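Late entry, written up from scratch paper. The run itself happened at the end of the previous shift, but nothing got recorded in the book at the time, so transcribing now.
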Amino acid sequence: MRRRVALLGLALTLLAPTARAAEPVDMLLVLAADVSRSVTEPKFKLQREGAAAAITHPDVVRAMTSGPHRKIAVCFIEWATAGMQNIVIDWTVIGDGASARSFGDRLVELPRSFAGSTSISGAIDFSVSRLEQ
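Output as recorded:
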């Protein structure tokens, strides 16, 4: 699982510089979480709460607001098998602790999208399309 997340993160990092946001931001970040059948409810909850805790951590907020535009755009998707991807939170600009907390609060409140088999390539393709938009 860690390997999948690392590969997805690497792929998105390499692709992000070619994307353009509707307003100037320093980075576009797609957070993509596996919600296939192998992800139990406790693991699902851990993923969501971990992402919310990370995005609101003061060091992370400081990093997100340290670029020339002082903000980034983030979206959160969930994925399982091919054709099973869902935008949980669409593009959101984070430029301070309050906007990061708002993103994190919404993330932990929203229900799980679905459960299915696993298709990392489907998740990568969907994430790349989010960056292109």
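The two ends are 27 Å apart (CA to CA).
(Scratch paper discarded after transcription.)
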